[in-house]
């Protein structure tokens, strides 16, 4: 068994398809099929249920997937140990919820200091990004916190205020029963806060329209299609020119904390370590800029 066989196996398991795995790995399909069959022969057990539309892991395949992730992760750790700590390079995969206002400053500083790092950003809702970090598909992620999970470490990035945003200048909570709510998909921290508030108030929304991108939500609210909930800082430009209006949300639903998470038992590469240093440095500057209390 070779390490590359485990990588091929993981890719097929992820896509549920030999053809898609071959495309990602830039292999011919026959080679991928042959390596999977050889792996099954060496382990003396089938690893997949095969059907017309693809392949699904069977119980033995699921066991191997768990072990293969651990093995390949350790292999990557060994490689990272020999990196040049003062000049990190390679790929750093980071997840983000789209409204993280602190991100541009962190990225700008990081890019200027470590130009050899290839930074890959993947957007999503909090629940999805959390699972990606747990599955070691992301090095870390900016999500809505706090997160309580035994495998996750976290550091606070920024605290913000959630607001309801509408096209009109006036608003009452009853409007939620008359106009559509424009929200991210399930798993979004902002949506979870709004749903908790509506449940307490006994409010049933007229309609929930789900969107995958922040830009689409902004544009739809500006067009008067419905109401949304987002951090106040992320909509300040449209508020300033009178395109939309913000409306307060009562405690304890209006405060939101963005955190950066990573898997606690994973090796922290120099690329990730330096990235977290930038987060901490930005937080320190933010605290230093606050007025002193008497």
Blueprint (SSEs and pairs):
Layout: H1 3-15, H2 18-25, H3 29-43, E1 48-51, E2 54-57, H4 59-81, E3 90-96, H5 103-113, E4 117-123, H6 126-134, E5 140-145, E6 152-166, E7 181-184, H7 189-201, E8 208-211, H8 214-222, E9 228-231, H9 236-240, E10 245-247, E11 255-263, H10 270-289
Parallel strand pairs: 3-4, 3-5, 7-8
Antiparallel strand pairs: 1-2, 5-11, 6-9, 6-10, 6-11
Notes on the structure:
By secondary structure, the protein is α/β, with parallel strands linked by helices. It is globular.
List SSEs in N-to-C order.
Answer: HHHEEHEHEHEEEHEHEHEEH
**Helix fraction bin:** 40-55%
Portion in strands? 15-25%
Q: How is the biggest beta sheet arranged?
A: 7 strands, mixed
Shape: globular
Number of strands: 11
Sheet/helix structural class: alpha/beta
Q: What are the segments in which pLDDT stays under 50 over at least 5 consecutive residues?
A: none
Radius of gyration: 23 Å
Termini gap: 67 Å
Count of discrete alpha- or pi-helical segments spanning 4 or more residues: 10
Average pLDDT taken over every residue: 88
